[in-house]
Design goal:
alpha+beta, Pdz3 Domain, 10 strands, 23% helix
Length: 204
């Protein structure tokens, strides 16, 4: 007569099988938890922000001092402003607003401020709190704005302008911040048009 089998053996086998299937499903097709997906949604724009982002494309070069066209003035009451990316000018001087969030989701939405004020992609930052920055270092302008951008996609030209930059070049301007944007006559914006993706807000 054979030895009696332990009644616990089948249960242990089933438990191990369930654990293996659960781990396999998590690695094969599981989505990242919402908390982890959301960690990349907002990154503060400062003199060192490019250290967190790799180059994405090459922007059309521009000179900040060439921004002599029509102006748009806006008082940003809070951060973020609704500008997803900034591009440096030639020689790392000046800053151009790129990829504006094209809507205001609700009254007082901070990310709709740029759109409601009429700021468009390709507008150059002319002054911040009354200080002319057309020929200022890109990193200093970013530190003065201290903006926050959602899932930033920075260009190769921005990376090149900032790779040698380290530390803070200016203190953030206090809110509300009066900022004047100016256009470059003849400049044609070729940046991305943003679309709402339903998960992370707006993307290319």
């Amino acid at each position: 007569m054979g030895a009696a089998r332990s009644p616990l053996a089948p249960l242990a086998l089933l438990g191990a099988l369930a654990l293996w299937l659960g781990l396999r499903a998590g690695f094969a097709g599981g989505r990242a938890p919402p908390r982890l997906r959301g960690e990349r949604l907002a990154a503060r724009v400062s003199a060192s922000y490019l250290e967190r982002q790799g180059p994405k494309d090459s922007d059309v070069p521009f000179a900040g001092t060439a921004a002599t066209g029509p102006e748009t003035a806006v008082d940003f009451k809070k951060r973020p402003f609704g500008i997803l990316r900034y591009q440096p000018g030639q020689g790392g001087k000046g800053a151009m607003a790129m990829e504006i969030i094209p809507t205001s989701r609700y009254p007082g939405d901070p990310q709709g401020q740029a759109f409601l004020a009429g700021v468009t992609g390709g507008s150059v930052v002319k002054s911040i709190a009354g200080v002319n920055v057309l020929n200022e270092d890109f990193g200093k302008i970013m530190d003065m704005l201290d903006d926050e951008v959602a899932d930033p996609r920075f260009s190769k030209s921005t990376a090149l302008a900032m790779e040698q930059q380290g530390g803070r070049l200016a203190e953030p301007a206090g809110t509300p911040i009066p900022v004047v944007f100016a256009t470059i006559p003849g400049y044609v914006y070729k940046g991305a048009e943003l679309k709402q993706d339903g998960q992370d807000g707006f993307a290319r």
